[in-house]
Amino acid sequence: MSNHTGDLTISQPPGCTENTVTNETPPAPIASTKGLNADLVFKGVTAAFAFSILVILALMALEMVKESLPTIKAFGWEFINSSDWNPVQDTFGALPYIWGSVVSSILALALATPLSVGTALFITEIAPRKFGGVVASLVELLAAIPSVIYGLWGVLVMAPWLQQTVQPFLIEHFGFLPFFQGAPYGVSMLAAVFILMIMVIPIITSITKEVLLAVPQSQREAAIALGATRWEMIRMAVLPYGRSGILGAVILGLGRAIGETMAVTMVIGNTPQISLSLLSPAYTMPSVIANEFAETTSKLHASALMEIGLILLAVTLVINVMARLLLWGMTRQAAGGAK
Amino acid sequence: MNPKVKIDKLNVHFGQTHAVKDVSIDVPENTVTAIIGPSGCGKSTMLRSLNRMHDLFPSARVTGKVLLDGGDIYDRKVDPVSIRRRVGMVFQKPNPFPAMSIYDNVVAGYKLNGRVKKSDADEIVETSLRRVALWDEVKDRLKNNSMELSGGQQQRLCIARTIAVQPEVILMDEPASALDPISTLKIEELIEELAEKYTIIIVTHNMQQAARVSDYTAFFYMGDLIEWGETKKLFTTPEKKQTEDYITGRFG
């Protein structure tokens, strides 16, 4: 017996002696106590880190609600229903900003979605594997470009091109439509739509690519064996299988577009107006916050910016949750379909 | 009688691997030919070369001839899509399209021919599902999602989808290996019935299954065709020692 306990103490790492003191009868499990304690500490620390994120988010939301109470009390629903934004007279209506954000983001997505899905299909279904990989990493590189660079390019290169070439062309040939009326300014809703389109393409493309890669090969083979061409296979087996995932990718792109600040501020013209014409300048929620926070004229003005921020936060949260749910449903379906 | 499918000195390479070596088999019309052999012996690879499925994988190289009614399907002028409409395929795991209803799954391939009248589609769906003995089980829920069905029902749905295109030859790659015994039995009965109208080539792991359903059997080992002939003869008086060892369970 004594021989046995002797073995135990030898096998114990030196740091464990404290534990042996506190325990009256220290047989077998002693050797693992150190690992257990370290595990508990590790668990506690990581849990604290994870929890702190939630706390920060909750505190932020709480603070924003608190700070925007003055305008919520003063204007109520009128805040999101009125176009009158006048810091000098302390009247605030955020509708032009909401309009600008929603319209620019949705139009950008409408243009970016087919381009992105097409690119993802090219990468996964059509290009030779190596070449597809090169294209995929180039597209992902686009996502790494800082948005101020996009904005600079937009305002120095794209806006003049729009002003001198694209917008006069649109006015001349499609001027009868309400969307292409007015003077060519260059900086405009159209410029913001284009910039946002370029900026969301990498996100939608890379997520769609992952979604398409998750489509089981057996689905493609099923379509091919029925005598489908490559395009028919994509339409019959690949896209339907990935549809919820692709929708999730698009919605994540929407979240990115609606929160984009810098590039949009630089090209949209920053004029709070609601116009059907894509040629006229507009304004978005993030842009007005970025432009006015440093020179708030009154407490109410600061509160109005805070409430816009609150609306923006709520919208992006809802959009992201929706996207995650769709992507989650997609992976669950992939797991279920494999049975 | 000319064979429906004549495999003539067929070789398949995957990169450095020589998966199918110089194989020649004649498959008569309206018969069931079983391909047996241990795992990795090249039997699935052989099967997939009969409707040019290897075209999907650039690493596969097929040489030799596969004659369908006397015409080489690997002829450069032949469109592989047209071959696959004549030579259908059923896979190991049931793979219905999960985003489609039962009805839409059955007509999925048929619709590739162009616009389809609703009445024609209805008829195709009913006859195809009746032929695979699934009609009575699903006729009241044709618009429901195909993933509601059990594994065996899904596999029969996949067979219905294949015959809806009205192929001449049906390739089956271990069609019952993922199914329970009762579903397996149903698939086997189905194969015998289908042989009245179609030429069937089936890869199977299960020797009893080969003995039960097939008219001809080919035994593969390490990419070589060891022996082929009438099933009864191959299972009772095999010519080669290797075949005898395999069917008596001495290896494999």
Automatic annotation (TrEMBL), chain A:
<protein>
    <recommendedName>
        <fullName>Phosphate transport system permease protein</fullName>
    </recommendedName>
</protein>
<dbReference type="GO" id="GO:0005886">
    <property type="term" value="C:plasma membrane"/>
</dbReference>
<feature type="transmembrane region" description="Helical">
    <location>
        <begin position="182"/>
        <end position="204"/>
    </location>
</feature>
<dbReference type="InterPro" id="IPR011864">
    <property type="entry name" value="Phosphate_PstC"/>
</dbReference>
<comment type="function">
    <text>Part of the binding-protein-dependent transport system for phosphate; probably responsible for the translocation of the substrate across the membrane.</text>
</comment>
<feature type="compositionally biased region" description="Polar residues">
    <location>
        <begin position="1"/>
        <end position="25"/>
    </location>
</feature>
<keyword id="KW-1003">Cell membrane</keyword>
<feature type="transmembrane region" description="Helical">
    <location>
        <begin position="308"/>
        <end position="327"/>
    </location>
</feature>
<feature type="region of interest" description="Disordered">
    <location>
        <begin position="1"/>
        <end position="28"/>
    </location>
</feature>
<dbReference type="GO" id="GO:0005315">
    <property type="term" value="F:phosphate transmembrane transporter activity"/>
</dbReference>
<keyword id="KW-1133">Transmembrane helix</keyword>
<feature type="transmembrane region" description="Helical">
    <location>
        <begin position="245"/>
        <end position="268"/>
    </location>
</feature>
<feature type="transmembrane region" description="Helical">
    <location>
        <begin position="40"/>
        <end position="62"/>
    </location>
</feature>
<dbReference type="InterPro" id="IPR035906">
    <property type="entry name" value="MetI-like_sf"/>
</dbReference>
<feature type="domain" description="ABC transmembrane type-1">
    <location>
        <begin position="98"/>
        <end position="323"/>
    </location>
</feature>
<dbReference type="GO" id="GO:0006817">
    <property type="term" value="P:phosphate ion transport"/>
</dbReference>
<feature type="transmembrane region" description="Helical">
    <location>
        <begin position="97"/>
        <end position="123"/>
    </location>
</feature>
<dbReference type="InterPro" id="IPR000515">
    <property type="entry name" value="MetI-like"/>
</dbReference>
<dbReference type="InterPro" id="IPR051124">
    <property type="entry name" value="Phosphate_Transport_Permease"/>
</dbReference>
<keyword id="KW-0812">Transmembrane</keyword>
<comment type="similarity">
    <text>Belongs to the binding-protein-dependent transport system permease family. CysTW subfamily.</text>
</comment>
<keyword id="KW-0472">Membrane</keyword>
UniProtKB/TrEMBL annotation, chain B:
<keyword id="KW-0067">ATP-binding</keyword>
<dbReference type="InterPro" id="IPR017871">
    <property type="entry name" value="ABC_transporter-like_CS"/>
</dbReference>
<dbReference type="InterPro" id="IPR027417">
    <property type="entry name" value="P-loop_NTPase"/>
</dbReference>
<feature type="domain" description="ABC transporter">
    <location>
        <begin position="5"/>
        <end position="247"/>
    </location>
</feature>
<dbReference type="GO" id="GO:0005315">
    <property type="term" value="F:phosphate transmembrane transporter activity"/>
</dbReference>
<keyword id="KW-0547">Nucleotide-binding</keyword>
<dbReference type="GO" id="GO:0005524">
    <property type="term" value="F:ATP binding"/>
</dbReference>
<dbReference type="GO" id="GO:0016887">
    <property type="term" value="F:ATP hydrolysis activity"/>
</dbReference>
<dbReference type="InterPro" id="IPR003593">
    <property type="entry name" value="AAA+_ATPase"/>
</dbReference>
<dbReference type="Pfam" id="PF00005">
    <property type="entry name" value="ABC_tran"/>
</dbReference>
<keyword id="KW-1278">Translocase</keyword>
<comment type="function">
    <text>Part of the ABC transporter complex PstSACB involved in phosphate import. Responsible for energy coupling to the transport system.</text>
</comment>
<dbReference type="InterPro" id="IPR005670">
    <property type="entry name" value="PstB-like"/>
</dbReference>
<dbReference type="GO" id="GO:0005886">
    <property type="term" value="C:plasma membrane"/>
</dbReference>
<protein>
    <submittedName>
        <fullName>Phosphate import ATP-binding protein PstB</fullName>
    </submittedName>
</protein>
<keyword id="KW-1003">Cell membrane</keyword>
<dbReference type="GO" id="GO:0035435">
    <property type="term" value="P:phosphate ion transmembrane transport"/>
</dbReference>
<keyword id="KW-0592">Phosphate transport</keyword>
<keyword id="KW-0472">Membrane</keyword>
<dbReference type="InterPro" id="IPR003439">
    <property type="entry name" value="ABC_transporter-like_ATP-bd"/>
</dbReference>
<keyword id="KW-0813">Transport</keyword>
